[in-house]
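Blackboard transcription, Thursday session:
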Amino acid sequence: MSVPGAATARTAEPSNYLNAEYSIKSWFLTLDHKRIGLLYLAGLTFFFTLGGLFAVLIRLELLTPEGDLFQSETYNKLFTMHGIFMVFFFLLPSIPAVLGNFFLPLMIGARDLAFPKLNLLSWYIYMVGGLFTLYAMVAGGVDTGWTFYTPYSSVYANSHVIAAALGIFISGFSSILTGVNFIATIHTMRAPGLTWFRMPLFVWAHYATSLIMVLGTPVIAITIVLVAIERLFGVGIFDPAKGGDPILFQHLFWFYSHPAVYIMILPGMGVISEIVACFSRKRIFGYHIIAMSSLAIAVLGFLVWGHHMFVSGQSIYAGILFSLLSMLVAIPSAIKVFNWTATLYRGSIRFDTPMLYTLGFIGLFTIGGLTGIFLASLAVDVHVHDTYFIVAHFHYVMVGGMVMAYLGGLHFYWPKMFGRLYPETLAKIAAVMIFVGFNLTFFPQFLLGYLGMPRRYHAYPEEFQVLNVLSTAGASILGLGFALPMGYLIWSLFRGKPAGNNPWGASGLEWQTQSPPISHNFDEVPIVTEEAYAYDTLRPPAAASPEQEEVLHV
Amino acid sequence: MFEDFSFFPEAASTVAGRVDAIYLFLVVVTIFFVGLISAALLIFSVRYRRGRGHAPEQVHGSIALEILWSAIPLLIVLFVFGWSAKVFFDVRTVPTEGMEVFVTGKQWMWKLQHPTGHREINSLHVPKGQAVILTMTSEDVIHDFYVPAFRVKQDVVPGMYSQLWFEATKTGTYHLFCAEYCGTKHSQMIGEIVVLEPAAYEAWLAGNPAGRNPVEAGKVLFENLRCATCHAAGSGQRGPDLAGRFGEQVRMRDGQTVIFDENYARQSILEPKSHIVAGFEELMPTYEGQVSEDEILQLIAYIKSLSTGDEEPK
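(Written on the board underneath:)
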């Protein structure tokens, strides 16, 4: 590979995308994908913090069986707002909007995304959507659950359903634009020599994700419009009293929202593939299989929505078919887990913070995936559907999986994004706290679910208290674990040690640019001559520690 | 806080043990695979940590391994699929004989009607060892009838009937939860299922006042609402005779056939124009707003009795 910019002398502070311009306008009207990635990072961090605060209040209420901290109505609004902010304004955009925006062009040797203006527009749309939903919250909140089931949401709920739903509707367009942008970029802007099967798996994962974003998001938009029409004008669509069908809503909602789960997890899988190869200093095991399994998940993901509806009144035979298809979607996920694990075999493994998150991800995602099989099993699902078992399951996938991958990715790429290192020891402590706190929070919820505790219960029978207390205890550790990186990452922006261009000795075009990268990424168009993860031809990190020196001498 | 603490729910129905068996099998599968992956991560992490000073060996992959670790999970999930589909089929297939109970959910209470005419709110007394068949609907939003000890759950949807059945195997009092979020007091839409020995159940029935049973109540409604004017045999046949037709295929004017079940009956009462039986005209007015959900259930109970009870088809 050619190494543009590597020879730049480390004088004062070389020009980069951060110091190129300082005006406020240069940020809010920027067309630089890296700056837009940072704008997203700011927005996402805000909504994640908000969603997290709601979670804290929920866990506090559930310390005792009686509903004594909040009124029922308030509690219902808390879990609804927690779900809406976390799903639509954090998890869905998270990795694609921040790391994808920032690194996709760098990874494929491009100067920007295919449509820089659309990219900026997508951030504005996201923020307007978020502010609408924020308005719904401030104006009094919404209490339908993030799933907006009809006819409760369309007729009976006395809360700000339309404002909240409109926010989600608007932010959906941001998703669609990002998807279109990524697909066009990957098709047309790869550097010379970067064939499809030389692309990093991060890029493959984002390609699969973008397909779901573009194909699925319009369906949720239509669904939300239908709910709004019924609510505003009384047209019978979902309300049986007016000749509508309440179950139709569930079909439409899950037709998007199940694939959306894969929008949330696939980019995380992409990040994990990058990190596991880098910290094992090895080619990833089964590259083609991992790439194709992302596409398989994207396609199969559209065919399994009915597993949310086994007890909804859908026919037995539909239930059986959806169960079978849901079982099949487990296979590509299992394949990925096995391949990541096998990548460690005969590697040369280092345990920096990104790798700790990655090992945590593999373990927790395995539990999340396997408990998904419980839910795809018809007879077991009948019992655990809408209980804490499913709450635990999707938090294992979404927090144990996606949030771990997001944090792993953020630590991995932080030196490239800002040119500075985060404090390693503190970061390791936070990673361990998050892992322990997470398990203590959510493992007891599997037991609660099988015992029969329904989700979305403000008050619960006394026999469920022990496990709820454990869960709340875990949540406090988890909360502190999340607070730490927010603190030290900001600190590192000003005080962190200079990172150098490639502190991990990672392969990939993004690591051959300057840290932080220059505004147009590459001085010369790079030419790719090798597959991804060619760690055998790559020199180990320049700033090698003593034990790495040994490796060199072997 | 620790008095009633346990890790596993009580199993008190004929299907509970079968569901638990699949669950426990899956727990074993989960422990096996999580153990396998964790052990591999741990062993590789220790053996191949960078400090040990060996160069990484570039392995590209292995088709044999890929096939192996796709095929084994595939076989396991297909086995679990088949097993749980069989149990699900049995859980969802309502037996032909059993004690029929009508359930109406509304924000935020359960109303239950015994075949004997006894009515209960937020509690249901049932005899042990007998199939209990619930025919359920909602007056407002979607609710869900969930009895963890029986491992059964079914959404209760407005505008249609859903059915759920169970056979209790142990006497005792069990939780009844609404499991589908239904608004402000969702967590207070709870109740209890009291399972009694058959004799004790008879004594409970005798000790509590019964209203008209649903069939009798339905018969009175059938007369008061003047349904009989058109729907009884020999009434000039402006509407189809209902006797002996329940559960049968009915041929419509447009050539479709529809099964005459609870949902069909309900729809015909509320939206008579939706299905016109072959050979009849569009004459019937809607009864929307004139009958409550409870009354529709009673009418259906009576219509059913015309096919199963004393008035045998000619």
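Lecturer's comment: Residues 33-552 of chain A form a domain with the Cytochrome C Oxidase; Chain A fold (CATH 1.20.210.10).
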